[in-house]
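Q: Here's a chain of 252 amino acids. Please give me its 3D structure as tokens.
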Amino acid sequence: MNTSDANAVRYARHHSLPSIGPKGQETLADSAILIVGAGGLGATASLYLTTAGIGKIFINDFDKIDATNLPRQILFRPDDVGRHKAEAAAQRLREWNPSATIVPLPERLSKHALTETINEVDVVLDCSDNFATRWLLNELCYSSKRPLISGAAIRMEGQLTLFRHDRLNPDDGCYRCLYSEHDENLEDCAGQGILAPVAGTIGCMMATEAIKFLSGIESDLAGKLWTYDGTSARTRMIHIPRQADCPVCGNR
């Protein structure tokens, strides 16, 4: 079976979707994505994006795997403990889809290096776990006019946003409009805990939004914050207004 026939079989269910089809699948194969953070969100999102046929994925994470990561970071196995997350993730993803190009970036990238990588991709997924990284990604994606999909999960709660920096709506804000320095706190998975499937839920939705964007499927999430409460199973979505004093997008 040649490559074309093999792909037709592998992606048959995508081909059956009118919003994707064979041409849309070719678009996915020609697309590139940067995922920052290979933890609970990034591990799940990267797995679905790789198996969905994204052609090139950069994975940036300078952290190493420890045993507490295993319940929610589904790419890793017990014998991966101690390895760099980006490198272990790349190895596993290549096994899932040998046709995909997976580029591990197992170091803390400088602002310049991060900008160069962002300029090589079509969309960025922020799967990080700290405000400093989130603010920087938002700033660089805004200046590079790259869409930014940002997710977060803690305890039994999750949230998701899509910032269409490539197609600005005058009324929509950016991540810096949503959170400022005054909102930073010490809550993280280590201190607060997290239910593993909640991270998987948000990671899956991030992958879905990325595929929708690359396929030209409009999303109601653009410029909005979607929240998920795993305890009650309730969700809600609110608009993120642009703040006039935002240091990133306030003067546009």
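Q: Can you summarize the key feature?
A: The first helix runs from residue 3 to 10.
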